[in-house]
Amino acid sequence: MFDKSPIGIFFHDKEGKLIYANESALQISGMHKLENILGLNLFENLNLAPKMEELFKEGIVKFQSLLNFENINNDCCNLENSKKTFLDWTVSLVDSGFLVQIQDISESKEVQELLEESEEKYRRWFEDDLTGDFIATPKGKILECNPAFVDIYRFNGLQKAIGSYISQFNMSDWINLIDRIKSEGKIQGYQSWHRQPNGNEIHVVANVVGIFNDNAELVQVKGYVFDDTERKIAEESLQESEEKYHRLFDEDLTGDFIATIEGEIIECNPAFAEIYGFNDCKIATKWNISESNPFDWPYMVTRLKKERKILGFQSWQRRYDGRKIHVIANVVGIFNDDRELVQVKGYFFDDTERKIAEDELTRSKRQITEILDSIKDNFVALNPQWHFIYVNKSAGEYFSVDPDDIIGRSIWERFPEFIGTTYETAFHKAMENKEIQHFEAPDIHTDDQQYDFSVYPSDEGISVFWRDITKRKKV
Asked: Is residue 449 packed enough to be buried (19+ CB in 10 Å), middle (13-18) or exposed (0-12)?
């Protein structure tokens, strides 16, 4: 009776392993030999798994489902099954383990209605899907597609789309896609530029699956595409912008860098590496810039916390190789949401040569000033516009002014009493004719004192020396 029963019966031991099945069970489940499935674990049936608690509590569970042994992981079994077989399951607890009874109810009216309802549901999903779904031949001929596919490729209706060739949108790309499907079976996130029938280019992203026959030959291609042209254009624009600014960063002659507030270099450009004596940026990013001047860096960070950015910060520093350099920097603080300084972005350039020349010029000017101030003769320098550019102490006493008070002032405006005198005549000859002038004249304010004047022209104006010769003249 057990072997001849039209109901499929499986026996499983207490561990869930299959120990016996009758002929009906083998036929219903599409299996040829019992030995091929012995040991199959009942607990790996995904349809039963959610009902295990009920089974152990009530001693029996009933449910209906499609036969699908693909969900049962048992590499030792060679199972043949029909995915469209709909079964009625009864699983019972018995003393020796589990009794499983199955009946094929695929032909029943209820099942047919269920399958029709399921087919209609999936058809609605297919029609309403915003992704462009299609089925095509390996040559690219569209056999079936949904409205979203029609809209993506701008066909004039579904009938225009069916029968057309998707391969014509990008022939070389389609050939490459087919070759990959033959070897990989399915491809996710495949990106490609396609030309619509109206000539416009769009960028699509697709998931494609190959459908193969029993001889492992590709017979159809099932695909799901969506138009991401806007995103792709934005991505390429952003990438182009990033590349442009990256080139500007790399080619900038200013030393650009980003560092932690402790001075650890996070990123820098080649100019920065060269300024501080490194062969490349990779080595520079392992360095701490605060080592270049342990006093200036904390001071600069403190200022950044208050001022957020500093322009024209100057500092004497030591490169990685120990050489002393002078840098001028613009630095900007990078703050988090709590307004805490977390990074320092800087733009440095090496102006050591200029600084040395400037310091040398300053020393030279200071030395000349000290010399000119130390002599007893009166001395002034006038530029071509007749403005005082230097007045020594003796000349200041002569004019009864502080030398700094007349620097930048016109001699004719500040001392109009010189106009129409020997002084004016001699000064103009020296300035305009580039001729040295010597003359003697009384004090501009009194005739009691006599002075000897020497006027020397140059490209920068004239220099005037004069000394008191009153005693000599009296003698």
From this structure: middle
CA 279 – CA 359 distance, rounded (Å): 30
Residues 338 and 216: their CA atoms lie apart, in Å, by 62
| Tokens 């200041």 sit on residue | 396
What is the 3-state composition of the chain as percent helix, strand, coil, each rounded to the nearest 5? 40, 35, 30
Query: What is the enclosing helix (H) or strand (E) of 272?
Result: helix 270-275
State the burial class of residue 123 (Cβ atoms within 10 Å of its Cβ: 0-12, 13-18, 19+): exposed
pLDDT digits (tens, 9 = 90+) for 91-123: 999 988 999 999 888 776 565 665 566 556 656
Q: Is pLDDT of 71 > 60?
A: no
Query: What does residue 335 show for φ and ψ, rounded to 5 degrees?
Result: -115, 150
| Residue 111 to residue 93: CA distance in whole angstroms | 27
Separation CA 386–CA 51 (nearest Å): 108
- CA–CA gap between residue 170 and residue 172 (Å, rounded): 6
User: How many Cβ atoms sit within 10 Å of the Cβ of residue 392?
Assistant: 22
pLDDT band at 248 (very low <50, low <70, confident <90, very high): low
Pairing of strands 265-268, 309-318: unpaired
| Inter-CA distances, 171 with 175, 185, 193, 253, Å | 6, 20, 11, 47
Sign of dihedral through CA atoms 147, 151, 157, 161? negative
Cα–Cα distances (Å) from 95 to 14, 92, 98, 99, in that order, read 9, 10, 8, 10
Give the separation between CA 301 and CA 173, rounded to whole angstroms. 55
In whole angstroms, what is the distance from residue 60 CA to residue 45 CA?
Answer: 16
Q: Name the H helices within 153-269.
A: 158-161, 171-184, 229-251
Q: Whole-model pTM?
A: 0.38
Are the beta carbons of 93 and 60 closer than 8 angstroms?
Answer: yes
Residues whose CB falls within 8 Å of the CB of residue 32, separated by 6 or more in sequence, listed in order: 26, 80
- What is the token pair recorded at 161? 């789309």
